Amino acid sequence: MSDAVITQEPARSAAVQSRAKVVARDVNVHYGDKHALQQVAIDVPEKAVTAFIGPSGCGKSTFLRCINRMNDTIPICRVTGHIEVDGRDIYDPEIDVVQLRARVGMVFQKPNPFPKSIYENVAYGPRLHGLASTKAELDAVVEDALRRASLWNEVNDRLDQPGTGLSGGQQQRLCIARAIAVNPEIILMDEPCSALDPIATARIEELIDELIENFTIIIVTHSMQQAARVSQRTAFFHMGRLVEEGPTEQIFSNPKDRRTQDYITGRFG
Amino acid sequence: MTLLYFLIMALLTAGAFVAARRRAVAVAGGHQAALHSRPNHHGYLAAFAVLLPMLAIFSFGMPFVERAAKSAAFATMPAEITADVLKRAVATRDIENFATGKFAGEAPRAVKEAAAALTSTRENGRATVFGLGLLTAAAGFLLVRGRITLAFRARNRFEAVVRIILIACAAIAVLTTIGIVFSVLFETFRFFFDPSLKGRPTVSEFLFGTEWNPQAAMRADQGDIRTAFGFLPLLTGTLLITLIAMLVAGPLGLFSAIYLAEYAGPRVRGAAKPVLEILAGIPTVVLGFFAALTVAPLVRAAGERMGLDVASESALAAGLVMGMMIIPFISSLADDVINAVPQSLRDGAYALGSTKSETIRRVVLPAALPGIVSAFMLAVSRAVGETMIVVMAAGLAAKLSFNPLDAVTTITVQIKTILVGDQEFDSAKTLAAFALGFVLFFVTLVLNVIALQIVRRYREQYD
Q: Which domains, from first to last, does chain A contain?
């Protein structure tokens, strides 16, 4: 497996040197009494894919949801510490969480298209944020988002049909198109392929490769092969802590921490 | 006698269960797993083998005994009495009274003889039923007991019995409904087409007439009262009050459901839900006098202050209180469907930068729409069928009016008015109630069907 990892294109590795888009320091998350995330610190580079890996319940999804403050919707969840996007503290009371989420889009584990038409699904965000003032502009935004999510060719003749009628993989690409349509800077993906078959998964992974031209992507995944295939940097979480973080090749070929090594060699998890 | 029968039946049933269970355990001889069915299944099967035949013997035997007793009694009477319907009824009462010792004064000899025949036949008959019951119980038990072996499939037979009992229960509910529909339908048909009925309207007079006055002259000297069965004023009255009620209950019920489902914390929710349920539990007669004695005067006073002419009983007062009645209905159904919208849809909307109210308005409510619409439809059919509040607060005047400040009347109120007091079932007035009932039934049925269709059509939208 690690052979595949080492052959990551060097061009991508160079991109890793770009500036940090998300900076987190001393992040702690409590669910009621449970200390779910402890002292996490990480720099996420711009226009690259960062993968969060680790066994179930290790806190990787929890941390992902801190970056667009989705944890705010869970009443018993408490987040402390410091997370910056483009140098601005997103937990600053001055920050409008609605605007933050427009800049930091999210794709979920299970495809969750709205029970509306394909067109309406994609047009939802642009309408909400006033990104198009005429019908023609909106049409253009929708088409662009669907093209960038490589779904346009499959659905352009049935935009008025319900998004829930698509196949699982198409639904997930629709959700990606829906996120892209708002023109975010960061896209968070929470195990986006775990409900999909291998072919649909491959298409999503191809798509992720294309998307890093324009977006910073953070992907949580259970599949180490997927992390190795799509990411330039990988962070390994274990028991609520960030154990190790670095270039993907290095994490998979030469991990510094014993626990990382055990996990990627399949000794636990 | 009857009590004794049921007591014995209960004892035998319990006894059969215990005995059959023991027998099964004994047959297994310490290897219970060797039995095809658990000992309890054998027990249940034996219990049913006792209970069901005893019940059947009783419920078919007793009416048969009564008929036999009566014909035995009449056999002693002269034919001239038994041939005449009225005399026969009088004689039946006398014989029955004498037999039970309630006859006042000295009874004629014929009555005494008939009563003796009645009593003896009845007692013999009941003793026979009793004996037959015990016999079938014993037969049923022995039949099951004799078949208890390791391989006997008591479990499967017990399942079959359960299935039959459940089918019977469902059939009773369905047949009752069908029976009601047909009885209403039949009388309605008579109302329109029975040639012996005086003053009956044609179907189009009924459906499109604008005047409702079901009173008819009983005797010639009461003069010429114009009878009219125009149903439109009742329909408009019903629709007007329903509309007012829905204008009150629709927004209030829906918004309170949204608050409870999406905004309220668990503590508020825990307190508010039971209170709403109490509101749903207030008997409508209580709401009715609240409407008549409190709300109607308030509406009238408020109207007068604004220089409006308000009747002392008004559609507005009745509609407002009926709206209060329906609020918990809508809010609790809508609360359920809103809660059923998957959290993933809300997450998706929030992640795109929707505020809470945008999420609710653009994602949650559209997803819950079919359920909400059907809640509204069911609420409407309740409002249309509601009687007590309208009887007390809306008045009796059948007036073709859309003014909410007028007194109006509804279909249900007229049915109640027509059927209160002494009735003769060959008059158009009484039968009009059945026609109204049929229309009411039809209206609510159509509303329910529409609601069901809407739900079915949109149900597959999410997940």
A: 2-264 (3.40.50.300)
Evaluate whether residue B181 is within a structural domain: no
pTM of the predicted protein model? 0.76
**Closest approach of A84 to chain B, Cα-based (Å):** 18
Which residues in chain B have Cβ-Cβ distances shorter than 8 Å to A162?
Answer: 461
Q: Are residue B291 and residue B403 in the same domain, yes or no?
A: yes
Nearest CA among B50, B98, B66, B47 for reference residue B2: B66
Q: Do A110 and B352 touch (CB under 8 A)?
A: no
The range of the structural domain enclosing residue B359 comes to: 228-461
- Strands A49-53 vs A216-220: parallel, antiparallel or unpaired: parallel
Which among B346, B352, B355 is the nearest to A182, CB-wise? B352
- Give me B443's structure tokens: 């209206």
CB A233 within 8 A of CB A245: yes
ipTM exceeds 0.85 = yes
Amino acid at B143: L
CB contact A241 to B (< 8 Å): no
Q: Phi/psi of residue B431, each to 5°?
A: -65, -25
Q: Which of B347, B350, B353 is opposite residue A182, by nearest beta carbon?
A: B353
Residue of B nearest to A108 (CA): B348
Are A128 and B344 within 8 A, CB to CB? no
B143 and B34 belong to one structural domain = yes
Residues B311 and B395 in one domain: yes
Query: Do residue B329 and residue B407 come from a single domain?
Result: yes
User: Which residues of B are less than 8 Å from A116 in CB distance?
Assistant: 366
Contact B43, B17 (CB under 8 A): yes
- The answer, yes or no, to whether residue B169 has pLDDT greater than 80, is yes
> How many Cβ atoms are within 10 Å of B36's Cβ, its own excluded?
14
Kindly determine whether residue B348 and residue A108, on different chains, have CB atoms separated by under 8 Å: yes
- The sign of the dihedral angle between the CA atoms of A45, A49, A55, A59 is positive
Confidence of residue B405 (pLDDT cuts 50, 70, 90): confident
Cβ B461–A99 below 8 Å, yes or no? no
Residues of B within 8 A of A98 (CB-CB) are: 353-355
- Per-residue b or e along A40-76, where b marks 16 or more CB atoms closer than 10 Å to that residue's CB: bebebbbbbbbbbbbeeebbbbbbbbbbbbbbbbeee
Q: Give the count of beta carbons closer than 10 Å to the beta carbon of residue B170.
A: 10
Cα radius of gyration rounded to whole Å, chain A: 18
Average pLDDT for A90-100: 89
Q: What is the pLDDT of residue B218?
A: 53
Please report, for residues A165, B369, B404, B456, B460, the alpha-carbon distance to residue B338 in angstroms, rounded to integers and kept in the order given.
Answer: 22, 9, 33, 17, 15
How many CB pairs below 8 A link A and B? 69
Chain B: residue nearest A106 by CA? B351
CA distances from B82 to B100, B119, B121, B427 (A): 21, 18, 18, 29
Beta bridge partners, A45, equal A20
| pLDDT average, residue stretch B459-463 | 55
Residue B257 vs residues B372, B375, B379, B434: alpha-carbon distances, Å: 10, 12, 14, 38
Residue among B359, B335, B339 at smallest CA distance from B272: B335
- Measured distance CA(B328)–CA(B282) in Å, rounded: 11
Total structural domains in chain B? 2
**Which residues does residue A22 pair with via DSSP β-bridges, in sequence order?**
A44, A85
What are the residues facing A241 on neighbouring strands? A238
Considering CB atoms only, which of A99, A114, A129 is closest to B363?
A114
pLDDT single digits (tens) B419-435: 887 667 677 778 888 88
Interchain proximity B347–A112, CB inside 8 Å? yes
Show residues of chain A in contact with B457, CB under 8 Å. Answer: none
A116 touches chain B (CB under 8 A): yes
Assigned token pair, A236: 């390994």
Which whole number is the average pLDDT over B76-85?
75
Q: Judge: A112–B366 Cβ closer than 8 Å, yes or no.
A: no
